[in-house]
Design a protein that fits this description.
single chain; 111 residues; mainly alpha; 48% helix
Length: 111
């Protein structure tokens, strides 16, 4: 469940749940959306939020992960990501690590 929501946030820059964007937040609205309202396809929600495209296969992977019945969700986080084979990383993991360490160091020094 959480992995799907985190992936959506990382890919779109937005929280999936619209109740989180409400200027007057309400736990009732959040609970209703999370537990009872139909869960739309990730690409449909991303479009509503004005977010960039999602990779091919993301909707199906996301829907399986956000299945409300835990028995119907993947039993492992090792479930392959369907879009992984069709994309390339923008930077090596070493370059990303260097960038992250630099960002953390500069932010902690600025505080």
């Amino acid at each position: 469940w959480a992995l799907g929501l985190i992936a959506f946030k990382l890919l779109t820059g937005h929280c999936f749940w619209l109740a989180a964007l409400d200027p007057e937040p309400s736990s009732v609205k959040s609970i209703k959306e999370i537990l009872f309202d139909p869960i739309p396809p990730a690409s449909e929600r991303a479009e509503v939020l004005g977010a960039p495209f999602l990779p091919d296969g993301f909707d199906a992977w996301f829907a399986r992960g956000l299945e409300r019945d835990p028995a119907k969700r993947p039993s492992s986080t090792r479930t392959p990501l369907p879009w992984r084979a069709s994309t390339r990383p923008c930077a090596s993991s070493r370059a990303v690590t260097r960038w992250m360490v630099g960002a953390v160091t500069s932010n902690s020094l600025a505080s």
